[in-house]
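Lay summary

Proteins are chains of building blocks that fold into shapes. Our project writes down both the chain and a compact code for its shape. Here are two examples, one after the other.
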Amino acid sequence: MTMPHPHLEVRRAVRAELADVPPDGAVLVACSGGADSLSLAAALAWVAERAGLRAGGVCVDHGLQTRSAERARTTAATLAALGLDPVETVHVDASNGPRGPEGNARTARYGALDAAAERHQAAAVLLGHTRDDQAETVLLGLARGSGGRSLAGMPRRSGRYRRPLLDLGRETVRAALPAGLTAWDDPHNADPAYARARVRHRVLPVLEAELGPGVADALARTAELVRADADALDAQAAEALAAVIDTELPPLEGYQLPVDHLAKLPRAVRWRVLRRAAVAAGSPATDLTAAHVLAVDALVTEWRGQVGIDLPGGLRAVRHDGALHFSTRR
């Protein structure tokens, strides 16, 4: 059977992802200048012209590499030549922050993309993550032991963000790069100092060699299945939390959870309730780990008079008068 040309596969994926955007709606693509995002940008330009959409691009310079500002400007010029308009180059400082180079860069990047989407009233912002990126994300989540939601990988949609290439392999996406376009190969992608680079160049090749081809596909399928399960459990947790909180009170006063109610919930639901309550009370979701949640759960299921659990964000979870209380740490 003849396989579709990579150009057609990428364009079809983009067209399907934007089918709900009305004519004259605005769409932005985040483009680093790498082969994946550049291929996505070219496909968006092609689809937008035929669908009557306003398509632009955003190039974020994190300032972490030599000549990064120049590369961002070159990439922006390439997007403009493809017909995207407007095209913005945004410079951010990702050199400082509490989450290390990768985490700081991600936070700064999404902040810049959010601001650009607001300025242009974009209905969607497209990201160039592929099926291979998804497989790497699943393995990283597995290594962290951070639960089903982490193993669910990246969602196809999250708010305004959309990932139309998640079902396509990296080779297919890069083969769709139009002739004449030169992609930038980020040296961080091969730097063993970064966990994702080690997974990409060391771990996945070993798995493919030892277990046979198709490991990346299987991991991506697993992510989709786990995400469906996690979504269902999250919905149950939201209902369980809503049944016991007082929505009229501020979070630090209202998120006092009856222990008897919590103890009756299935563990998978209870853990999610505790995490939701902690985040709602002010603990940063990015810093709240599975270990934190399990420690809070012990206040429910293994109560021995513990004085409380310290949580990120300056919070403390304590058990008092038959309820869990989330309060500011003093």
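And here is the second example, written the same way.
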Amino acid sequence: MDSNRFEQPPAGHDTAQLMEQILYEVKRVVVGQDRFLERVMVAILAQGHLLVEGVPGLAKTLTVKTLANTIRGDFKRIQFTPDLVPADLVGTRIYNQKTGDFSTSLGPVFTNLLLADEINRAPAKVQSALLEVMQERQVTIAGISHKVPSPFLVMATQNPIETEGTYPLPEAQVDRFMMKVLVDYPSDEEEFVIVQRVTGPAVAVAAVATTEQLAALQAECRCIYVDPSLVQYAVRLVSATRDPAKHGLDELARFITFGASPRATINLTEGARALAMLRGRSYALPEDMTDLIPDVLRHRLVLSYEALSEGFSADQIVGKIMARIPPPAKPLAHEKLAA
């Protein structure tokens, strides 16, 4: 039997060039935030969704809007407020008095890139309506299912400095987000460039790709090779969040009430694939996965009151687990044939 049949095709030059052009166009407008932009691209390629936490004014909306322009996709933004109802998101049936018929008016979730601003300001039923669309990628109105466009990415934001009048997302709903990304203030040098760009002439963003090309990139991402040892590494990490004592982390058991779900293991594997593809490789390396571990796990750990009282954060606990469970030895490119 010819073993070459099992080798995945390498990431093509055209693919790498296209992603480079998309990132270049976005960076012409957005200054800094390279890590955040990288996570947005990973979420798109891996067909996941992002939960972003950061103070106002850090270019979260601008990043997603600019990205939508570069891929000729639709972009919509919903400002979540306490008086929002599910129909404001997904749409509703409208009665036409002249004809006596009902017509369906689709809501703003029918887009390629959706920014759900301050998702924790909307009541639970509105949050549930959005999270259902994220999981099923369709909306049912009056018994008829309507699919959202592809590609489809939801980026929900939370403001960490103002919790008055908010409805925290339940753990089961937060689990549907692939990653939770923390966006920080820019450096002094970056802020200087930001002021120059905002106060200077407007930069026109060129559309360098189409939504069809992006769908093809998503399909290509599924072909990126992930070594079984990397998947086992992800399984051990996630298992350590559920049963720390089993992995020699007895001191962490009292700090974790609930660990991460199997979605975390899947997201780590898919994320490593997407990051490897962004970096121009047709196979994932351990660093592709380790770079994403805090983002994939931080929102999935339910900390005990003891952890909160002692000032422990989810990131600190994830750091201790990563220090205890080492990544596998770097798999070489030729090891793909052993799959």
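What can we say about the second shape? The chain has two domains: 3-83+109-211, 224-338.
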